[in-house]
Design goal:
single chain, about 230 residues, alpha/beta, six-stranded mixed sheet, five-stranded mixed beta barrel, 3 helices, globular
Length: about 230
């Protein structure tokens, strides 16, 4: 996924009120919108290089969006609004081998009162529902971790995948890792034991779990390769 316009560089100062980040550009401090609702632990360091996109829309109060940050080892993609698009692009480009062989792809597929991120299908009897989550947390051993905060919404999504699986429908939980300084993935059970327990349950019931890592630069982010699960 290439960025539509060149990104603007600055120096990260602080994040506050969840959705705001102060970033220094030259002598000016600009306030950038932060789409990531997680803790962003291991993603933010004062003085790290940050990249922002600019949006000159009269309906926007904040003209800049916080896209990525560099910890000196890797770019970290922190704009969670891009994650589903990255996954869709990777499926369509054949990168995610396990999700090939479907003629149709529908984003935000409705099931009951809820929605699943991606529906792949060949016919009403041959479907695969894919839920997508963004991963940015890392531990000292190079494991990418999820979640970075207690996620009731994520727990609900696992329950929905499990119910579909019990009905005989193909279901996949896809984690997209937006950083390159990690070599494998595991669930962060200390932060959210309930999510960890539920994920183990859905795996045992046959829900497939996939983890793919991105390659990042200020020009583009692409899903690059599969990671092993610890």
């Amino acid at each position: 996924m290439k960025f539509k316009t060149p990104l603007h560089s600055g120096i990260f100062q602080k994040r506050y009120k969840r959705f705001f980040a102060d970033i220094k550009m030259g002598e000016e401090i600009v306030v950038a919108h932060t789409a990531n609702t997680g803790t962003m632990k291991t993603c933010l360091g004062e003085g790290w290089q940050a990249m922002m996109s600019y949006h000159d829309s009269p309906t926007r109060k904040l003209k800049y969006s916080f896209e990525m940050i560099n910890n000196g080892k890797t770019w970290i993609g922190i704009n969670t609004s891009l994650t589903n698009g990255l996954a869709i692009e990777a499926i369509q480009n054949g990168v995610i081998k396990e999700l090939q062989g479907y003629k149709d792809l529908k984003p935000e597929a409705k099931i009951g009162q809820s929605r699943i991120d991606i529906l792949l299908s060949n016919s009403p009897d041959e479907q695969c529902y894919v839920e997508v989550k963004n991963v940015t947390l890392i531990d000292d051993h190079g494991h990418a971790l999820f979640p970075d905060a207690v996620t009731e919404r994520g727990l609900k999504h696992l329950g929905e995948l499990l119910e579909l699986k019990k009905q005989g429908v193909c279901t996949v939980m896809l984690f997209v890792v937006q950083r390159e300084d990690c070599h494998s993935f595991k669930v962060e059970q200390d932060i959210d034991p309930a999510y960890c327990k539920k994920l183990k349950e859905v795996i045992n019931e046959g829900v497939e779990v996939l983890v793919y890592q991105c390659k990042l630069s200020p020009e583009e982010i692409i899903v690059h390769k599969k990671l092993s699960i610890v």
